[in-house]
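[Q] Does anyone have a clean structure-token version of this?
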Amino acid sequence: MECDFGWVACLVMSDIETLLDFPCAFPIKAMGRNSGSFESLVSDIVFRHAKPFAGGQVKTRESGSGTYLSVTVTISAESRQQLDLIYEDLTTCEQVLMAL
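[A] Here you go.
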């Protein structure tokens, strides 16, 4: 397997297929500076590829200083490829500092 994220990330990414039974609820978390539009930016990116999980919601949490914001969006994940596309879009967005 070819991977640009290091051997630990590759190991985790390769195991995702065996650990998840698609479709399933899957939380996606992104962190960035606490601007007025960060929550909607992350939601727009994620919902470009997926439907919200029934009963799921978008949750936010500010850092202790209020400088950063984490946004967690729970989706109905359909496949590994779908998750890869979401993470690719999140990590290429300049406002997103980290995606989990």
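[Q] Thanks! Anything notable?
[A] Confidence is low (pLDDT under 50) at residues 5-9.
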